[in-house]
Amino acid sequence: MFRQILAEQLSFDKATQEAFLSIFTEARFEKGYQFAKSGEFSRVMGFVQEGMLRAYFTKSNGEHTLYR
């Protein structure tokens, strides 16, 4: 799916597209896994192929969802 979206959105030649895609690896995470945590810097980025990702923050009065 990522290859298809990349090909549709960017005008890379085949060699550039393959070089770009070679830096990515596929990973699967279980429900509840925290991809990024507050106060930490991420050295990775993600692309959701299936399922949902939720961004939220917590305050003393509870959890607030930013987007789903």
The tally of helices reads 2
General shape:
elongated
- Termini separation (Å)? 20 Å
Q: Helices and strands, in N-to-C order?
A: HHEE
Low-confidence stretches: none
Secondary structure: number of strands: 2
Mean pLDDT: 82
Helix content: 10-25%
- Domain count: the total is 1
The largest sheet is: 2 strands, antiparallel
**Residues in β-strands, percent:** 15-25%
Radius of gyration: 16 Å
- Return the structural class: alpha+beta
Order of strands, main sheet, comes to 1-2
Structure description:
The chain is an alpha+beta fold and 68 residues long. The chain has one domain (2-67). 24% of the residues lie in helices and 16% in strands. It contains two helices and two strands, in the order ααββ. A two-stranded antiparallel ribbon has the order 1-2. A hairpin with a 2-residue loop joins strand 1 and strand 2 (62-67). The longest helix is centred in the first third of the chain and has 8 residues, at 2-9. The chain is elongated, with a radius of gyration of 16 Å. The two termini are 20 Å apart. The model has no long low-confidence stretch (mean pLDDT 82).
Distinctive features:
68 residues, alpha+beta, 2 strands, 24% helix, elongated
Task: Record the SSE blueprint.
Layout (H helix, E strand, L loop, with lengths): L1 H8 L4 H8 L33 E5 L2 E6 L1
Antiparallel strand pairs: 1-2
Q: In short, what is this structure?
A:
This protein is an alpha+beta fold and 68 residues long. Helices cover 24% and strands 16% of the residues. It has helices spanning 2-9, 14-21, and strands at residues 55-59, 62-67.
